[in-house]
């Protein structure tokens, strides 16, 4: 329920009241939101981004090409997420992109040995990774371009304020931002944690990632080269400048929807740290030089049509809270932390399962309080 309430600096502000407020409409927030709504609670999600999905992000270029510049694909390492994926596959929401990784090291390119059962790498059916969060957001109430800057606990309820001075009141809160951002929000709100929780949350670490999107003009490329290229290349050496190169045009249901070839290049964490503040002109030649051999002949200054760079400050969690799918803040109205840092694999799977775990823990607390 949203009511126009106060006048702040002569600007009308609103107060929205629901059972649960979820900060962040990435995969963790969306999973939690759907589970809580299905359990009969009223749920409001807010996200500071222009759209939903967080790190499942797809960028469109003016020429029609699209690029997954965050997460590239997803896998299942647990029976719980295997079940989720099987259901999504049966509904046609996701499908397998490839099964064996192509590794590169120096000039050598090798194929990951086949596994039994095959290790499927899934992508959403639709135009890019962002199609999955869009699908999960369909029945939820979400306000985007809304950054929560302050939290208050009043009369055993939460009051969250956004940058514009609008309020979101709720009986319970789930926070799914990357942990350093969550800690900053709690600190700015003068919310103190137990000593143990402070040290647990401070131990979480993320690696940065420079993501370079490169559109190539196919007319400048020898067509007989293209079928020999893999859909993606993963570096064997973590110290290599490039960590991953993915061919977005191979993800499209209809390859003809791309008039260009669209590659995403992910720099390794070390390279990303070292070149974080450098501009595209400095970074581009270094990453082109680090390409696996088969791509070096294809991606050249002659074939490149357009490039864009995105900086992910918190890309993948390198130090996560294993075996802690959610964390409940003590001595406050119900507040759970969730996201990809809460679990074993620091991936989409972890974020999804953490969102579900936070919703289950919250429902349990609601039930035991009534
Ligand atoms: C470059 C890159 C490559 C990756 N590759 C893969 C891969 O191939 N496979 C895989 O499984 N995973 C991959 N990942 C990791 C995967 O994307 C994440 O694990 C997952 O998307 C995390 O989801 P989340 O919901 O926990 O967090 P997020 O997606 O980060 O969502 C958190 C949301 O909170 C919002 N937010 C933050 N603060 C506030 C605030 N104060 N107010 C309102 N909103 C706020 C943010 O805008 C964001 O949308 C990759 C990530 C990156 C960046």
The amount of helix comes to 10-25%
| Arithmetic mean pLDDT | 94
Number of strands: 20
Using the 3D structure, state the CATH architecture of the largest domain.
Alpha-Beta Complex
What small-molecule ligands were found?
flavin-adenine dinucleotide
- Count of helix runs: 9
* CATH topology label of the largest domain: Polyamine Oxidase, Chain A, domain 2
**Rg computed from alpha carbons, rounded to a whole number of angstroms:** 22 Å
Low-confidence stretches: none
The chain-level structural class is alpha+beta
Rounded to the nearest angstrom, the distance between the terminal CA atoms is 23 Å
Question: Could you explain the architecture of this structure?
Answer:
- The chain has 370 residues and is α+β, with helices and mostly antiparallel strands.
- 25% of the residues lie in helices and 33% in strands.
- It has helices at 27-38, 79-91, 131-136, 179-188, 195-202, 269-274, 280-289, 293-296, 348-369, and strands at 2-8, 11-23, 43-46, 58-60, 66-68, 94-98, 102-105, 108-111, 121-124, 142-143, 148-154, 157-162, 167-175, 205-216, 232-235, 242-247, 261-267, 304-319, 327-328, 335-337.
- The strands form 4 sheets. Strands 1, 2, 3, 10, 11, 12, 13, 19 and 20 form a 9-stranded mixed beta sheet that branches. Strands 8-7-15-16-17-14-18 form a 7-stranded mixed beta sheet. A two-stranded antiparallel ribbon has the order 4-5.
- A hairpin with a 5-residue loop joins strand 4 (58-60) and strand 5 (66-68).
- The radius of gyration is 22 Å and the shape is elongated.
- The mean pLDDT is 94.
- Bound molecules: flavin-adenine dinucleotide (FAD).
- Flavin-adenine dinucleotide is lined by residues 23-29, 46-49, 54-56, 70-74, 147-148, 176-178, 181, 185, 209, 211, 266, 312, 315-316, 339-340, 347-348, 351.
- The site of flavin-adenine dinucleotide has 37 residues, from helix 1, helix 4, strand 14, strand 18 and helix 9.
């Amino acid at each position: 329920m949203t009511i126009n309430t106060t006048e702040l600096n002569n600007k009308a502000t609103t107060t929205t009241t629901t059972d649960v407020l979820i900060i962040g409409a990435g995969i963790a927030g969306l999973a939690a939101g759907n589970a809580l709504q299905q359990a009969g609670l009223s749920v409001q999600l807010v996200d500071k981004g222009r759209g939903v999905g967080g790190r499942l992000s797809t960028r469109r270029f003016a020429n029609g090409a699209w690029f997954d510049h965050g997460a590239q694909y997803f896998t299942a390492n647990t029976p719980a997420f295997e079940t989720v994926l099987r259901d999504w596959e049966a509904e046609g929401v996701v499908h397998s992109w490839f099964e064996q990784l192509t590794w590169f090291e120096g000039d050598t390119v090798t194929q990951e040995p086949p596994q039994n059962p095959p290790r499927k790498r899934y992508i959403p059916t639709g135009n890019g990774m962002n199609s999955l969060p869009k699908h999960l957001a369909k029945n939820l109430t979400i306000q985007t371009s809304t950054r929560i800057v302050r939290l208050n606990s009043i009369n055993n309820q939460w009051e969250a304020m956004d940058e514009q001075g609008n309020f979101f009141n709720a009986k319970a809160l789930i926070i799914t931002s990357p942990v350093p951002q969550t800690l900053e929000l709690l600190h700015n709100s003068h919310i103190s944690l137990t000593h143990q929780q402070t040290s647990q949350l401070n131990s979480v670490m993320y690696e940065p990632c420079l993501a370079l999107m490169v559109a190539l003009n196919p007319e400048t490329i020898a067509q007989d080269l293209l079928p020999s290229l893999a859909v993606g290349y993963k570096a064997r050496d973590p110290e290599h400048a490039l960590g991953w190169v993915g061919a977005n045009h191979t993800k499209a249901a209809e390859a003809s929807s791309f008039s260009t070839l669209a590659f995403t290049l992910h720099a390794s964490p070390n390279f990303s740290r070292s070149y974080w503040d450098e501009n595209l002109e400095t970074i581009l030649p270094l990453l082109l030089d680090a390409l696996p051999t088969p791509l070096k002949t294809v991606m050249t200054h002659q074939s490149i049509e357009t490039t864009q760079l995105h900086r992910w400050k918190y890309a993948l969690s390198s130090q996560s809270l294993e075996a802690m799918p959610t964390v409940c803040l003590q001595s406050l109205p119900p507040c759970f932390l969730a996201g990809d840092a809460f679990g074993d694999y620091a991936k989409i799977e972890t974020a999804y399962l953490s969102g579900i775990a936070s919703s289950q823990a919250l429902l349990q607390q609601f039930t035991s309080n009534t």
